[in-house]
């Protein structure tokens, strides 16, 4: 029972991190049709910035988190303008893959140059250390925090996309870009804003998840396949899909590590193939359509 | 005489919208028929249903007596039901000659051959030369299609269809986008089509329609409105009505 | 906007023997002898680097297989290593347990690579775009995981060793200086190049190029795009499998990285470096990539990543045709 509870908590926390990062990728893929392999690199950059802010500058955790997210978004916006805007669109997969792999390599090399190849930590503040009593059980406070932020992200995104003017325009543009442009929606600005949203989510996940996805220069390459898998299963542009896929993946992967340490990944990829074979546009998109 | 192409009660709904409502149409060998109608009448849907891009909700399609309603698009092509595309839809980096070679090779079922050289398939070079000559494309045979003038692309589109030795040829707006001064070249090419071929042309250019077609079929709101000779169609008040506002002058020359 | 891919496509129009323009005909006829001559020259000039150069030749055959898939059929894949690694393991296992003849081992690798490509291609090639990319990645990861778990056969993460091929044709032993290995690899690459050239100029190759540009149009000509794609995927699988077997035979070991994501991605980088849709572009790209890699990675792997990253971005933005397009511009002035 203890193990099962531990798996559930760790799995859900891990799934939330995957969700926060992947949903950013999902949103940009859904709108701009760009396979952004550098998404993991953006998450990593934010993690390193937060680590430097906390350890090098001695800023408090909350300030480091906010600063890292903000800085990453500001730093990547010129990239949207200079690089990404040239490769938007469905017919461009190869160019997208190459350009964003290239960008990833440059970021990996840059991070290594600035921070070195060793593992970096973001020290947790006092309140996030230790455990949180939950009736008879106790769960690590950091895990609880991550889960809470994940739930808040889901709700905030839901509100943003369903209830705000930005969300209405965004969904219109996803459904039919030409029609949206004809209605006078300024897609350029919308793209930039969406890109910033996606990067911001990557950054948030990168900082929060530093305990689970450790920060080192190869982070950007190591985890991108995971993020892509979540998006592929969840369906590009679907929040609920990303959330369900990320949570399922987090729990399965964690359970696999605890219970059947030899075949976790195998089952994961086999499931992925089955799902994509049956529903080529993602489990949730495929069934809704 | 049985029709080469025999369409009966062809219907298609998108959600609640009926875009094709029980269309019945027969096309005989050697016929020159035009399908006209205002925008949104369902002409393109009809072509897509007949050629197998879309699956009909009801109705049957027969080609030379054989029912092909559920066959995939490429199987219909292999039986001689060929279409050209509304917008020149060609392989931009391939040369004009390569297009025609590919079409002939597909027709002869040669494309599974891994180790044969295209240049050494017997009879291929002569047949392609004949097709090039027939459309006046010999001079640009080695040019990549992406660099071809638009009118020449349309001629290639027709040559491609002919290379497949069609029984029934569906031309989807063969003159669309071609400057008016050049459209006579398209008409010339169309007039030299094999006489026993059944041709159905979808076209907006009434000039071309009246010169080419012996029979005209009018489609409106997914239904067959009427059918007749150019003179009958031009005189029909219902045709004037559906075209009024969108394309007023329906006059034979 | 789609300039990159469009250029990559328009820049690749290999003409047929009989009526190609004169410089191109010369270049085509010269490609194979030139490759042989350069290969032999390198053999005399750099006798101490035969190991590295053998790896380059092996990789060139592997990248050639990716060119068939991507350059001539337009299948964007990040899983070509699945075929390479399968061929390598099949040949390696056969060498340890069954046969020693190097040519038989290459055949084993080729068959294994072709079969896995045929099986997985049938399954995944109806997908498009991101879905297809993910499926190719997933297939390679599964194959790698299977190889990792089948420890008794493959040696798992320790790798498969003890591959000791017999003399080539019963005459030439694989010597410790790697001379036989190098010349063997050169001969196999040359043969592969010639066969691949034959295939891309066949009716089948022409039809595949059609599918790359517009599958719907090919169907309207009576062709079956899915079947053409699966066939080309399988054919390329044979090439990749032979390359894997060649690597097993010449190096004596097979590791899990031969099935890895990076090896798939690197193949893509090498191909793009050389230029997609031309066979000698694949070879050129591999030689350039592996040589620079050897020089830069020896000092610091991160220098290498910076270089290749900047290079990739530059290629997409400024030189979509790869190195080969530079050579084209040089040899004939009429680039589209």
Automatic annotation (TrEMBL), chain A:
Task: Report the Pfam families cross-referenced here.
Answer: BPD_transp_2
Q: Does the keyword Transmembrane feature in the UniProt annotation? A: yes
Q: Which UniProt keywords apply?
A: Amino-acid transport, Cell membrane, Membrane, Transmembrane, Transmembrane helix, Transport
Main location class: membrane
Q: Give the way it sits in the membrane.
A: Multi-pass membrane protein
Q: Where are the transmembrane segments?
A: 12-31, 37-54, 61-79, 94-115, 144-161, 190-213, 225-252, 258-277
Q: Where in the cell is it found?
A: Cell membrane
- Name the InterPro entries on file: ABC_transp_permease (IPR001851), BCAA_transport_permease (IPR052157)
| Highest taxon of source | Bacteria
Assigned protein family: Belongs to the binding-protein-dependent transport system permease family. LivHM subfamily.
Protein's name according to its UniProt entry: Branched-chain amino acid ABC transporter permease
Give the species. Azospirillum oleiclasticum
UniProtKB/TrEMBL annotation, chain B:
PROSITE patterns from the xrefs?
Answer: ABC_TRANSPORTER_1, ABC_TRANSPORTER_2
Q: Where is the ABC transporter domain?
A: 5-246
InterPro entries in UniProt = AAA+_ATPase, ABC_AA/LPS_Transport, ABC_transporter-like_ATP-bd, ABC_transporter-like_CS, BCA_ABC_TP_C, P-loop_NTPase
Q: Which Pfam families match?
A: ABC_tran, BCA_ABC_TP_C
Give UniProt keywords alphabetically.
Answer: ATP-binding, Nucleotide-binding, Transport
User: What CDD domains is this protein classified in?
Assistant: ABC_Mj1267_LivG_branched (cd03219)
The cross-references to SUPFAM superfamilies, in alphabetical order and at most eight, read:
P-loop containing nucleoside triphosphate hydrolases
Q: Which domain of life is it from?
A: Bacteria
Matches recorded under PANTHER family: ABC TRANSPORTER ATP-BINDING PROTEIN, CONSERVED COMPONENT OF ABC TRANSPORTER FOR NATURAL AMINO ACIDS-RELATED
Q: What is this protein called?
A: ABC transporter ATP-binding protein
Question: What species is given as this protein's source?
Answer: Azospirillum oleiclasticum
Automatic annotation (TrEMBL), chain C:
- Give positions of region: Disordered: 1-23
Keywords assigned by UniProt, alphabetized: Cell membrane, Membrane, Transmembrane, Transmembrane helix
Give the taxonomic lineage as stored in the record: Bacteria, Pseudomonadati, Pseudomonadota, Alphaproteobacteria, Rhodospirillales
Establish whether keyword ATP-binding is in the entry: no
* Protein name as annotated: Branched-chain amino acid ABC transporter permease
Compartments it resides in:
Cell membrane
The way it spans or sits in the membrane comes to: Multi-pass membrane protein
Q: Where are the transmembrane segments?
A: 29-46, 52-75, 82-100, 106-125, 182-200, 230-256, 268-292, 304-327
Q: Tell me the superkingdom of the source.
A: Bacteria
What ranges does the record list as Low complexity composition bias?
A: 1-20
Coiled-coil stretches, from where to where?
none
Keyword Repeat among record annotations = no
């Amino acid at each position: 029972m203890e193990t099962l509870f531990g798996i559930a908590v760790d799995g859900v926390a891990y799934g939330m991190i995957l969700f926060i990062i992947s949903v950013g990728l999902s949103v940009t893929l859904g709108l701009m049709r760009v396979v952004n392999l550098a998404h993991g690199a953006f998450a990593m950059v934010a993690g390193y910035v937060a680590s430097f802010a906390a350890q090098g500058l001695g800023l408090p955790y909350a300030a480091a988190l906010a600063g890292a997210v903000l800085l990453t978004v500001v730093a990547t916006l010129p990239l949207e303008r200079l690089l990404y805007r040239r490769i938007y669109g469905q017919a461009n997969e190869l160019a997208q893959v190459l350009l964003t792999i290239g960008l990833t390599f440059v970021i990996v090399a840059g991070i290594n140059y600035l921070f070195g190849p060793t593992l970096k930590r973001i020290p947790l503040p006092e309140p996030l250390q230790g455990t949180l009593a939950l009736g008879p059980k106790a769960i690590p406070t950091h895990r609880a925090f991550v889960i809470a932020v994940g739930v808040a992200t889901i709700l905030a995104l839901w509100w943003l996309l369903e209830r705000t003017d930005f969300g209405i325009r965004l969904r219109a543009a996803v459904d039919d870009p030409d029609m949206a442009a004809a209605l006078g929606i300024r897609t350029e600005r919308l793209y930039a804003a969406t890109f910033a949203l996606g990067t911001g989510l990557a950054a948030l996940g990168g900082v929060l998840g530093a305990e689970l996805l450790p920060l080192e220069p190869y982070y950007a390459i190591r985890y991108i396949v995971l993020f892509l898998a979540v998006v592929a299963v969840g369906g590009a542009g679907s929040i609920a899909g990303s959330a369900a896929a990320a949570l399922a993946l987090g729990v399965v992967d964690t359970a696999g590590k605890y219970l059947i340490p030899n075949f976790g990944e195998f089952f994961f990829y086999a499931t992925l193939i089955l799902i994509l074979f049956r529903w080529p546009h993602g489990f949730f998109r495929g069934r809704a359509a | 005489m049985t029709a080469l192409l025999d369409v009966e009660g062809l219907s298609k709904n998108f959600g609640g919208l009926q875009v094709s409502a029980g269309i019945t149409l027969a096309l005989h060998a050697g016929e020159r028929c035009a399908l006209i109608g205002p925008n949104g009448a369902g002409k393109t849907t009809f072509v897509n249903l007949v050629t197998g891009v879309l699956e009909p909700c009801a109705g049957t399609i027969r080609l030379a007596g054989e029912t092909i309603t559920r066959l995939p698009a490429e199987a219909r092509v292999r039986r001689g039901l060929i279409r050209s595309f509304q917008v020149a839809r060609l392989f931009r980096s391939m040369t004009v000659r390569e297009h025609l070679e590919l079409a002939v090779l597909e027709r002869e079922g040669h494309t599974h051959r891994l180790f044969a050289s295209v240049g050494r398939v017997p009879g291929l070079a002569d047949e392609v030369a004949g097709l090039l000559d027939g459309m006046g494309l010999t001079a640009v045979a080695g040019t990549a299609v992406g660099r071809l003038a638009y009118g020449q692309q349309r001629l290639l589109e027709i040559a491609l269809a002919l290379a497949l030795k069609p029984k029934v040829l569906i031309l989807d707006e063969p003159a669309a986008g071609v400057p008016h001064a050049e459209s006579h070249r398209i008409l010339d090419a169309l007039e030299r089509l094999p006489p026993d071929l059944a041709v159905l042309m979808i076209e907006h250019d009434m000039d071309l329609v009246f010169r080419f077609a012996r029979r005209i079929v009018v489609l409106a709101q997914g239904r067959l409105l009427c059918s007749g000779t150019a003179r009958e169609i031009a005189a029909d008040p219902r045709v004037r009505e559906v075209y009024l506002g969108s394309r007023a002058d329906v006059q034979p020359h | 906007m789609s300039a990159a891919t469009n250029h990559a496509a328009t820049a690749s129009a290999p003409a047929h023997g009989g009526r190609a323009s004169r410089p191109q005909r010369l270049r085509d006829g010269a490609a194979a002898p030139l490759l042989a001559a350069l290969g032999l020259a390198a053999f005399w000039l750099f006798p101490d680097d035969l190991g590295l150069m053998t790896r380059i030749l092996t990789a060139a055959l592997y990248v050639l297989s990716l060119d068939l898939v991507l350059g001539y059929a337009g299948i964007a894949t990040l899983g070509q290593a699945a075929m390479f690694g399968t061929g390598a393991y099949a040949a390696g296992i056969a060498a340890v347990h069954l046969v020693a003849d190097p040519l038989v081992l290459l055949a084993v690798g080729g068959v294994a690579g072709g079969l896995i490509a045929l099986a997985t291609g049938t399954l995944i090639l109806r997908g498009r775009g991101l879905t297809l990319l993910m499926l190719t990645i997933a297939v390679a990861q599964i194959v790698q995981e299977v190889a990792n778990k089948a420890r008794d056969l493959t040696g798992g993460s320790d790798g498969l060793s003890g591959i000791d091929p017999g003399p080539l044709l019963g005459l030439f032993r694989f010597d410790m200086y790697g001379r036989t290995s190098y010349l063997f690899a050169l001969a196999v690459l040359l043969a592969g190049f010639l066969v691949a050239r034959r295939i891309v100029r066949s009716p089948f190759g022409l039809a595949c190029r059609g599918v790359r540009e517009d599958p719907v149009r090919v169907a309207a000509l009576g062709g079956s795009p899915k079947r053409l794609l699966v066939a080309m995927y399988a054919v390329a699988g044979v090439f990749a499998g032979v390359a894997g077997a060649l690597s097993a035979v010449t190096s004596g070991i097979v590791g899990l990285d031969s099935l890895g994501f990076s090896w798939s991605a690197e193949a893509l980088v090498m191909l793009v470096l050389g230029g997609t849709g031309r066979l000698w572009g694949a070879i050129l790209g591999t030689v350039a990539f592996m040589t620079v890699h050897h020089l830069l990675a020896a000092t610091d792997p991160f220098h290498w990543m910076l270089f290749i990253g900047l290079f990739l971005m530059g290629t997409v933005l400024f030189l979509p045709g790869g190195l080969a397009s530079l050579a084209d511009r040089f040899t004939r002035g009429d680039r589209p």
